[in-house]
Amino acid sequence: MASIPNHAKHVRFLERHLSLLPGSQQEHDVNKMAVVFYSFTGLMALGIDVAEKYRSSLDWIHRHYITIKLPGWQQTISGFTGSLSVQIPGVNTVSLPNTLFALLVLKLMKDETFWDNHLDRQNIMTFVAKCQSPENGSFSSTLDYKNLKPSPVDPKDLRFCYIAISILYLLGCRNHNEFARHINLDKLLNYILSQQCEMGGFGSYNEAHAGYTSCALSALYLLGKLDQLSDEFKERTISWLCQRQVSREGCMSLLEPNANYDHDDHGGFQGRENKFADTCYVFWCLNSLRILGTQGCELPARLDLAEQFLLHRTQNTLIGGFSKNDQDDPDLYHTCLGIAALKLIEGSFDGVLFMPKNDAGLC
Amino acid sequence: MEGFEDIQPLPITTELPDELCRIMYTDEYKETMGIARALIQKQEYSKRALDLTAKAIGLAPAFYTIWNYRFDIVMHMADQDEDAARLLNGELDWVDETTLNNPKNYQIWSYKQALLERHPSPSFKRELPVLELMISDDMKNYHVWSFRKWCVLFFHDFTHELSYSDLLIQKDVYNNSAWTHRMFVLKHSNPDQKQIQLELEYVKEKIQQVPQNVSSWAYLQGLYENFLSGSYDTSIVQFAQMLTNNVTESPETAQTSWPEIDSSYALEFLATVYAKKDSTKKKAVKAYQALADKYDSIREPYWQRQISMLE
Hints:
The structure holds two protein chains of two kinds. Chain A is mainly alpha-helical. Helix content of chain A is 43%, strand content 3%. Chain A contains 15 helices and four strands. Chain A has helices spanning 7-16, 32-45, 50-53, 58-62, 96-108, 112-117, 121-130, 158-170, 176-180, 185-194, 210-223, 231-242, 279-292, 303-314, 332-346, and strands at residues 65-68, 77-80, 349-350, 355-356. The two termini of chain A are 26 Å apart. The radius of gyration of chain B is 28 Å and the shape is elongated. The longest helix of chain B is centred in the N-terminal third of the chain and has 18 residues, at 84-101. Chain B is mainly alpha-helical. Chain B has helices at residues 27-42, 47-59, 64-80, 84-101, 107-117, 124-137, 142-155, 161-171, 176-188, 193-209, 214-227, 234-242, 264-275, 281-295, 300-310. At the A-B interface, helix 2, helix 4 and helix 12 of A face helix 1, helix 3, helix 5, helix 7 and helix 9 of B. Chain A: It comes from Torulaspora globosa. Chain A: One of its GO terms (molecular function) is CAAX-protein geranylgeranyltransferase activity. Chain A: Residues 7-346 form the Prenyltransferase alpha-alpha toroid domain. Chain A: Keywords: Metal-binding, Prenyltransferase, Repeat, Transferase, Zinc.
């Protein structure tokens, strides 16, 4: 596939999220950096040079970077907030996901000056390290607003483990010793392994989930630790992932009585057993399969049908964008993930770092 | 804002040059955030601050610092209150109200966990009706099920769980969360062989009702792998053969017309069992070939891979 049909409509759909937004969007105020990240990634994957187009907004992006050392703290931390609205002088509001989003945005913007001269890698790595739970080795998405401990009210799970590892990777960590210098790597590995599910895949309390599976596998890949998984578990996970492709053929048509089955989802992927297919799970499942696949080998899944599911079922050909299914309105997250999935199938998207490959030279 | 006349607001910054995603904030948003930000900075622990965080959370539910600050206020109040349990119960009530209004709010579950962990006398009985309401609204909500499992472990109380998962399975036999919950409960409660036999009967009955169901087959396999040392007996093999029209048992190796069967999962189950022994590997290959040709042809590349791994 040379280019995605309705290219111009998708570009406009993504660009709309960067322009003036109505008050109904204010609940996303806190995560503006996520909005910028998903829009830029989608645009870049569509071949738009965001570095050129949005250069004048660099100053505004840089303002999200903060460095903080409160009275009584031994260490200084740096990182990004998702919005200027959450920055409060004297209060720690650095966010782990938004730090990753901002770093990737800077990569897409080819902002080497800020990267080399303004980012304090040590401070950011200190922040990442402090987000690790001393109890079970997992990561929290933010610290307590007053001290250097993981926030007491924040979720800790595989998403934030992946985000932490990806940040350390972008900041230069490449092998066991380099990661272990900043975080408790053994505890993290134990945590990730504890999230393995019996039938393959990863998730909490033995219910596998394609999103968590992609996070776990991507983190292990960046750590160079996929060998921690047994061959048997890898096979089970490949099987579990392949089984997530929804089908209307053969015995699968017997699934009609399941209220969460639609034969028109044919070719799409679901995030869990017996659920509808969803745009974003095409990405999470295929990225996971690719990580587990051997170099040069074709994936044991029907990529052509996955592509058709995206193009004919969840793509909005009228206003652009992708939705999660054939019912909802298109949204930014599913648009970015849908484009990423199509580019992943094409081979021009780095699913582990979540970056279009034409830009991989920057990494 | 009324009641906050003494507070100098800390306004949010906007309308900067080349700002991306600029939002046309409502006056209510600007005013509430301005005061909330000032209170966080002052670290004021008061009833009015608590009320304001509720308003701010309503407007910006993903603002993690507000949740953190609210928790801090509650902990300060609980320290000073003679009846900390009553105060924390009041807070749990508030979260549940917020949760029921916005079940996709991801912060609430970890917030509730933090409250329960610091509660002097936490009660599962209090949590159960809310959990039931939330699960009946969205029967496969991953966060709610995870929270339920966290509660079961936190309170060390498994007494309600088997009957609850049965209820959910009766409502929807395809509910994978209910099936995995059942396995989670079983693995944590040291069942004896008698109970495992009862579970086998239970799942076989559900499979007979609806043979094409990945969740019940996974549960069946889980019973054997976790509690019966992975040794699949003749009766379970026959059970699967019955649902597959004995396609693996006929003497021909290649077939031009495969018969109708009730379940591709039964056939895959047989393939897994047959692949374990050299003497039955040929049958496993046949099962995979049948899956690739007819019963689950979308996964043809995957079934071919299984065959090549056996050869």
